[in-house]
Structures are given as structure tokens and as C-alpha cells.
Design goal:
Length: about 130
């Protein structure tokens, strides 16, 4: 139950002002064609910020040889993992394409920037 409490605290923290207000886009006249939006480049992560965000990750992934009691599975080592792999995995959990209830709950509170920062930091570890 503790990881969910931490995840809830992180969600409250992020929702309390970490995100800028969004404004409605200006209306475009119907007579003018609109340009197709440019594909956004993947955000480059900030390892220093990522280091601050991984405190909940260490609870399972930071313990050598850790296994959950039920269901019984090995918790993978994520330190030093490929940055792109970590981005893909966390995004998959957040979007529901990767299935694991605890990881899905953790990833729900993460923005794309959070994911990029976490991946950038974990990729620097040995």
C-alpha cells in the first residue's frame, strides 16, 4: 500500500502547479488553410530532474534480488538501461499497452517530460 501512497502524493504534487495553464488556441478562419503540425521531436530528458523523480522506483527496482510475493515475479533492474527502452516502457504502462497494475498506476501520474527525465537519469547509472 505504501507505493500507492507515494504515487498519490506525487500526483497531488504534480497537479498542484507543476503544469502551466493551457490557453485555448486562437480560432482560424475557415477560408485560410491551416498548416499541418510539425512532428514534435522527442523531449530530451534532464537527468538532474529525473534523479528527483525516481524515489518511488527505488522501492522495488533498487533492491537486489527483489521478488514480489504474489504473483511471484522478478523485478527487473532498470539502472543503466537504454534511455529509449525506458521511455517506451513507461509510456506503454501509462497508455495501457504494457500490462502491470503497479507500473500502470505509477506511470499514470507521469508526464512525457517526467518520463524523459527519469529515463535520462536511469540511463546514466551503472
Amino acid at each position: 500500500m505504501r507505493p500507492l501512497t507515494i504515487a498519490l502524493a506525487l500526483t497531488v504534487l504534480l497537479a498542484s502547479g507543476a503544469h502551466a495553464q493551457q490557453t485555448a488556441p486562437a480560432a482560424t478562419p475557415a477560408a485560410q488553410p491551416t498548416a499541418a503540425p510539425a512532428a514534435a521531436a522527442p523531449a530530451k530528458g534532464d537527468p538532474a530532474r529525473g534523479r528527483e523523480l525516481v524515489f518511488t522506483c527505488k522501492g522495488c527496482h533498487g533492491v537486489t534480488g527483489y521478488k514480489n510475493a504474489y504473483p511471484n515475479y522478478h523485478v527487473p533492474r532498470i539502472a543503466g538501461q537504454s534511455e529509449q527502452y525506458l521511455v517506451n516502457a513507461l509510456t506503454g504502462y501509462r497508455e495501457g499497452s504494457r500490462k502491470h497494475p503497479t507500473m500502470q498506476a505509477q506511470a499514470q501520474s507521469l508526464s512525457e517530460k517526467d518520463i524523459a527525465d527519469i529515463a535520462a537519469y536511469l540511463a546514466t547509472l551503472k
